[in-house]
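In this section we turn from sequence analysis to structure. A common task in structural bioinformatics is to predict how a protein folds when a small molecule is present, because the ligand can shape the pocket around it. The inputs are simple: the amino acid sequence and a SMILES string for the ligand, here zinc ion. Study the lines below before reading on.
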Amino acid sequence: MKKPIKKRLCYIAIALVLIAAAIIYWPNRWHYIVIHHSAGNYGTIEFLQDVHRQRQAGDPIDAIPYHYVIGNGNGLDMGEVASDWRQENHIWGTHVSSNNRDRNFRGIGICLIGNYEKNTVPKAQYDALVTLTRELMAKYNIPPERVSGHGYTDGESTKCPGKNFPMASFMKDIAR
Ligand SMILES: [Zn+2]
């Protein structure tokens, strides 16, 4: 027996509402920001893409693991903010471990090119990071408590973004 037309219209309406909700939710779901360093002195989008291809061969998301990278003058310009189609399409990241799946799904990953376990963060690069982080916090309504350094996040055991990354002053600078 055919379903009554009214019932079918009702199903279509429900489907449209769900699709609309998903379209609104997807690009606005960002809940965390996680800061990283690349641990290498050189970096461009293409370079990080190659690193990702080697580390996670077969990942169908053939993009850099982060949403944004900030250059150190070696590859990208000093303080230059770059991103690829992961960020453009609001795709989840692969920048923290599976202990923090939600920070991969709803966390924006920002990576500073450089090794801040060995070197100190150049001021121009640091300033670009503060500006970008503050913009993203304002855009997605993310409070400072949900911004963290990779290794400062519960469940993560890594030195990233390096012992010389000025975590305490960064938290003050983004909260101002
Ligand atoms: Zn990291």
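The CA atoms of residues 50 and 64 lie 8 Å apart. As an exercise, try to locate the residues that line the zinc ion site and compare them with your own expectations.
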